[in-house]
Design a protein that fits this description.
Two copies of one chain form a homodimer. By secondary structure, chain A is mainly alpha-helical. The longest helix of chain A has 24 residues. Chain A is globular, with a radius of gyration of 21 Å. Chain A folds into two domains: 55 residues, Homeodomain-like (Arc Repressor Mutant, subunit A, Orthogonal Bundle), CATH 1.10.10.60; 150 residues, Orthogonal Bundle (Tetracycline Repressor, domain 2). The first copy, chain A, is 76% helix and 0% strand. The N terminus of chain A is likely disordered. The termini of chain A are far apart. The first copy, chain A, binds a DNA duplex (18 and 18 nucleotides) through helix 3.
Amino acid sequence: MPKRYSPDKKDINTEEKIKIAARSVFHKKGFVATRTRDIALEAGINLALLNYYFRSKEKLFDIIMAETLHTFVASLISVLNDESTSLQHKVEAFTKAYIEMLIREPEIPIFIMSEMHHHPDKLLARLNAKALLFESAFAKQYVQEFEKKNIAAMPMLQFLMNILGLTVFPFVASPLLKKIGNLSGNEFNALMKERIKRIPEWISLIMNPDAHP
Amino acid sequence: MPKRYSPDKKDINTEEKIKIAARSVFHKKGFVATRTRDIALEAGINLALLNYYFRSKEKLFDIIMAETLHTFVASLISVLNDESTSLQHKVEAFTKAYIEMLIREPEIPIFIMSEMHHHPDKLLARLNAKALLFESAFAKQYVQEFEKKNIAAMPMLQFLMNILGLTVFPFVASPLLKKIGNLSGNEFNALMKERIKRIPEWISLIMNPDAHP
DNA sequence: GTCTATATTTAGATAGAC
DNA sequence: GTCTATCTAAATATAGAC
């Protein structure tokens, strides 16, 4: 991997240009459907440079995927581990952060889910997902909340399915939903912004069915 | 396309063998990642026979996709258009039918969603999805219900996102969820069966926040 | 209808000039 | 570092024997 010092002005160097193009094309088409020629074209560089900088299509993909996964879980982690906020606030913060991120990068969920189905081991090997959820500040609050109320807790995994299903799924199914509702991209996004307010209310109703007279 | 009369015993003819294998491989790997050789091998037939019967990989794929889409919406349609059942019952019937279907064929959602993102026009061209939802018996009941209660209805699209997100999303994210929860396939399915009971309750809470003291 | 052998196309990767 | 030209390895599809 060549070093670059580039104390240059504003211009982006070649390696970065390739990564930006690769991210865009991989996210849109996935690993197998992406051709290195597509990336080179999008980056405005010569095909041979891709291998010069990244050795192979797969190594380039691994880098992009690692960064994308980080984007996908980073905001989740910071929300889950903030000791200073309430459970309800965490749900609100998560929903807002996630939907805003997904409006900016709507292809990320289908990209990750799709690649995850085709190479689960490769993608999940590093992820200590169990610790991520079950050892977070969120987890402690979650069990405390239910102990306090002395009711049977919804298993945390069911909770996770609910909040991810409500926030992430519309982006996975967006082509279908746009067709059904005859929606433009902007109209779809407006519906999703509406959900930023609604989802925490719905989650609250689901988890505390007795507390809302 | 060759005709076959096959008043044969129990044995399956070659065309059907190819379709069964193609469905399995396409569902698992998607269109681009599937090689015709994989299908031939899985079907136990010669590679050339695939082209003999179906002309091309793409034509075979189109047939499989049409059938898969039919599976995916058929149970939905019959539920939505049953004039004799209540709104609540429709939600219960839908949830049960869908989750049971998805336990049998868990790759269908990621398969459809993934292909839909990559060729939205091709897949959605025929589907009169708008009529499917907005002209159903379900739609009439939906607006009536809210008029009766004299409250602002949740837009039907938001309702659709909710029920699909709660039922379908876990199957899209199953590799991630299994990893996080350290679940086997059977344990995952058990959680989903639990959701058959829970989701209609949650939907009811969300849609009628005042009716549950 | 089914097979073997092969033609054609495409995409990832590299050699070597500049 | 960047380019042109090319090598090599797949994978779809077909020709033609049986």
